[in-house]
Amino acid sequence: MSILFSEHAKTFHLYNQEISYIMTVLPNGHMGQLYFGKRVHHREDFSYLYETAQRPMSSCVYEDDDILSDGYSLSLEHVKQEYGVYGTTDFRRPAVEILQPNGSRICDFKYKRHEIMGGKPGLAGLPATYTEDGGEAETLRLILEDSLTGVILELLYTIFVRGGILARSAKITNEGKEALHLTTAMSLCMDLPDYDYEWLQFSGAWARERHLKVRKLEQGIQAVDSRRGHSSHEHNPFIVLKRPSADEFQGEVIGFSLIYSGNFLAQAEVDTHDTTRVLLGIHPMGFDWKLERGESFQTPEAVMVYSQQGLNGMSQTFHRLYQKRLARGYWRDRERPILNNNWEATYFDFTEDRLVEIAEKAKECGVELFVLDDGWFGERSSDHAGLGDWAANTERLPRGITGLAERIEELGMKFGLWFEPEMVNEDSDLYRAHPDWILSTPERSASQGRNQYVLDFSRKEVVDCIYEMMAKILSEAKVSYIKWDMNRSITECYSKVLPPDRQGEVFHRYILGVYDLYERLNTAFPRLLFESCASGGGRFDPGILYYAPQGWASDDSDAIERLRIQYGTSFCYPISSIGSHVSVTPNHQVFRNTPLSTRANVAYFGTFGYELDLNKLTEEEQKIVKEQIVFMKKYRKLLQFGTFYRLLSPFEGNLTCWMVVSEDQKEAVIGWYRTLSHSNLPFARVRLHGLNPDFCYEEQNTLETHFGDELMNIGLITSDGMSGQVEGCTGEYGDFDSRLYILKALPQNERKD
Ligand code: DGJ
After folding, report:
1. CA of 574 to the centre of ligand 1 (A)
2. CA 627, chain centre distance (Å)
């Protein structure tokens, strides 16, 4: 890995064994993009990549054109850039826009100098990838200046030793004499030389999150975004551009991911000459950050991953990075506790004894963590009251959280608790004491969502107050886990304490407040396991992963719905981050009946747990649950931290298949799922991946043996599994059937060649 600067050609070459990223200082001093892709040889001069072929008619010529000696006109419209500005001959959407006192928005950022450093600096107040020692990555800081306004633009590029990863962010500092307004500040601007890509996005709705959608790039703009104040159920701050011939296993793919949890924009603009500009960052709509003299604005970080090994190759790189160098702390590398959450078991209808009854059965079945969901505080007997009053309701819990936690711990389990820290009900003591603490626009109606308002987390005193209430409970009671919920989008986004010309900052300041609270709690309670949640998957993004290493992926707990949700989620996010539980049938969201085995076979590929009262299962079912938990404990490390491959897509057909392989390739678990049964089923094989071709694997249920090369080239025969032959098989070949295949490499002397 290295970052090389050629003084004479003014080119930068960032490379590791997999990728090269090449830029140049353009003749007018702007930064130009020359190449991003598979590693190429270094050369002192890459300037031939700067294409200046003149375009007829429509081009306008950048004023400083006389600096060019080669006779060509410099029209920024036709130049691939690093951080494009609109209006000085470039007409594409810009990476940065600054409103100046005279009303102009034109900027002219010219290269001044650069620094190259080992490792990777942190981003103040923001989540970001990190290194554990300086040798893991190198960082380039480009410093540019707009001389008229005195604004300094710092572009940060980090290349890691391993993986096709490039992390980027920008910092804008007002070193001029007058206050300015930053109205666009993207984290990443990437101009690609063609548009021969398919665009992949991960979209949906509440309980239908991160469904894969694919379309061909075309001239014009394609985008996904959120303007809801959270990354949202509707879209995810992650897109992929893949060559049409690329698939899960081969071909060129670039993933773009934003480490941020608020309003975002991910966009590709294909211009008239077939180049593509990708922009990723905070949504410019409504964004307006005032920069007084001396003030800076730091954008969130964006991560690009380039893969020649198709979509799985890209996903595995994201998984490793986000699992090891974005998630942090005590739980980062630890197997996650198997939990039982009471939400779908009781909703708001519980007493302490009822909870203990559920927990006792959970303990008997092998569950490790009991989680008390919504309804334990204030006057919270429905979703109309209580949010904001973070003290136990002693009618339900006579000895408070401390008493309940003690009883759970006495059973030999850990205790977890639900919070929704950012919200308040009108019917709450907090709201009665501080009605001005909510986000709402003066003299206009304040919209409620799920009967609640959003607290103004851009205000420190609000975050302080919530922190104090939470910290009190966490200090008094033995709480090992927090489920942090967020159940509505932000409307009438206005802070009572900011002046009118700073209201465009509130959305971002809000998210900074959320990050601040997470950070303070993580620091004060370093062993606490956080699970993020926003009505399920409404804020499942890399920003939150920095503070909470796992997230409840969706409120839809139906196994068949979960196939799509978890499959889509896996494109960017590691399996250890995907909260997935077994729930009752008929399922509470889609009223579907699925076999208990299939419900577990899907949930194993995640953090695993139960979202039901195990007392209500039959004895036979309870026996199966015990076996499931024994199975999960045995294979948990492999399932949560192994290398994950998608094999058959639920977005393409009736079958879904995925697998995980251990680092030493000696163990693998394959999950196979058939949505609907059909008569006279066809013959079927699935080609496996990631195995060692020379290892002889024994399937643990059938005890059949196959070499890795057979399983990867001939395939695993899935058409003739018989009842009882494979673990988890319902044996009925009915709808919603599933199987697990468990492979173990035999030692050399036990091979059955
Ligand atoms: C939405 C969450 O996604 C559910 O799991 C549950 O915690 C409810 N909120 C509680 O109100």
Report:
1. 22
2. 32
